[in-house]
Amino acid sequence: MRAQIALLPGDGIGVEVVAEAEKLLQAVAKKFGHEFSFVRGLIGGCAIDATGEALPDETLSICRASQAILLGAVGGPKWDNPSAKTRPEAGLLKIRKELGLFANVRPIKASPYLVQASPLKTEIVAGVDILFFRELTGGLYFGESGRKTNPDGSETAFNTMIYSTHEIERIVRLAGQAARGRRKKVTSVDKANVLEVSRLWRQTFDRVMQAEFPDVQTEHVLIDAMAMHLISKPKNFDVVVTENLFGDILTDEGSMLPGSMGLLPSASLGADGPGLYEPIHGSAPDIAGKGIANPLATILAAAMLLRHSLHLETEAVAIEKAVDHVLSRGHRTADIAGGGPAVSTVRMGELVLEAFLAV
Ligand code: NAI
Ligand code: MG
């Protein structure tokens, strides 16, 4: 197949980890006979330095003309000045909004070779394989908000949680479709005992699932109970779908199951148009430029890109197997080495590449 892939390395270790993922994508093209072209764009601090904007129009055009986008990370102390006109993170919010990326997809999978990296007990973590769908463009983050001064001088502020059936339906559908390729179970998380918006969420979820995914098992769990179940019995969950704020909190909590941020990829998807793939970590200014960042999250994000945007499942699995193989042989970057011997970013990339070419 032919595809154009936009590469937006961004700032800090984003540059280092995207370079390794690009090598893997090039190897996928060669091994499986695809024609991938890569186009680079600026986003974040480097874009502000070059153009004054965190997401220049040129980058947006490159993204729109591509089938998929691989992003590193943005930000760093250099751009943290509170009086600055724009911040690197503005580029992230704008690209999500402009491309209509309403679903954030995060796999939380505990590698059998790294269970000791988790702060949780091995018997709880081993075998965990959850796919989160967090709604990304609605809820409290985007509802009407405000602040006012009361007559006594104190202040009142508010945010509103708003969802329409349309917004709920489209993310529930993505979750249902994903469950079909997995263990066929979707857990919807809400607060329907208290919130009206959750009652609409629950009704809409039930209607869509019964009508369109009768073969998929469903359940409802309240957000407070879910916070507990996620660390007490995480193996009970397959696909989890929830609104923006609940998903933000649960996915960070879930990232502790596998143990290290340097391992976790994510995707942001829309109805049509390109999907955006990135590691969940940031630009890690404390280690940027040292060549020690873990590139595996970004390499696994590239595998998600192949799966979700290019529909190349075999190729995606081949990358994931190569990563597993490298971990099974005991190779570690510093963040997961537990003080033991560690390899560099580039060496980790090479090891995955070698394993990929060998299978
Ligand atoms: P961070 O994720 O960049 O780093 C947190 C800690 O994890 C650091 O000690 C870092 O060295 C380590 N770490 C992260 N990724 C790693 C990797 N691949 N390999 C080894 N170690 C890794 O979060 P932090 O420090 O809160 O933010 C740094 C900058 O990144 C800020 O400017 C922040 O705004 C930005 N950021 C950007 C994100 C994005 O582009 N999506 C997401 C989160 C933060
Ligand atoms: Mg968060």
UniProtKB/TrEMBL annotation:
Taxonomy, superkingdom: Bacteria
SMART domains registered for this protein in UniProt: Iso_dh
EC number: 1.1.1.85
GO biological process per UniProt: L-leucine biosynthetic process
Isopropylmalate dehydrogenase-like domain boundaries: 4-352
Positions annotated to bind NAD(+): 76-89, 282-294
Site (Important for catalysis): 141, 191
Family statement: Belongs to the isocitrate and isopropylmalate dehydrogenases family. LeuB type 1 subfamily.
Annotated function: Catalyzes the oxidation of 3-carboxy-2-hydroxy-4-methylpentanoate (3-isopropylmalate) to 3-carboxy-4-methyl-2-oxopentanoate. The product decarboxylates to 4-methyl-2 oxopentanoate.
Protein name listed in UniProt: 3-isopropylmalate dehydrogenase
Organism: Planctopirus hydrillae
